[in-house]
Design goal:
Helix content: over 70%
Structural class: mainly alpha
Distance between the termini: 10 Å
Largest sheet: none
Radius of gyration: 17 Å
Order of helices and strands: HHHHH
Number of domains: 1
Number of helices: 5
Bound molecules: fe (ii) ion
Shape: globular
Length: 149
């Protein structure tokens, strides 16, 4: 199994959580919003770590250089933007602010997933050897505790 197949499967498992949040945020209280934000942060955080540790080093040479802001500081990655959006929900004291931050972060996550599915994973499959893609897939399984026959 290739690394991209594993990561696409994770996106597939996370989409229902995004849908649940979109469907229920308007009627949720602050405590419920925080529980959902915490679940999403856990699911997305481990997914993003695997991408950053397994996939990104293998394809870095095929990606444009990371953007820098006007003062030369690195621009936060999509993964960092999403994580800080969820942290904002978890630390929020105001219901409306938490609702907006959560919905904005879910929208950001959908945009990020689409970019990976239509650009990053296709680039991976085009540029990396099949053998390397399968080695990375095996390492993904080892880290997730999934048995591959
Ligand atoms: Fe990602
Ligand atoms: Fe992803």
């Amino acid at each position: 199994m290739r690394i991209t197949q594993a990561l696409l499967g994770e996106h597939g498992a996370i989409y229902p959580l995004l849908e649940l949040i979109e469907r229920t945020t308007a009627s949720s209280d602050l405590g419920e919003l925080k529980i959902r934000a915490g679940c999403l942060q856990s699911a997305l955080g481990s997914h993003a770590n695997l991408e950053d540790e397994l996939l990104v080093p293998a394809i870095r040479g095929f990606l444009p250089p990371p953007p820098v802001s006007g003062d030369g500081a690195p621009v936060p990655t999509d993964h960092e933007v999403i994580d800080s959006g969820l942290s904002r929900v978890l630390s929020s004291l105001q219901l409306e602010e938490a609702r907006q931050s959560l919905l904005d972060t879910v929208a950001e996550t959908r945009k990020h997933f689409l970019k990976e599915e239509t650009i990053i994973f296709q680039l991976t499959e085009r540029e990396l050897s099949r053998e390397l893609q399968e080695q990375l897939g095996a390492e993904w399984a080892r880290r997730r505790g999934v048995r591959l026959s």
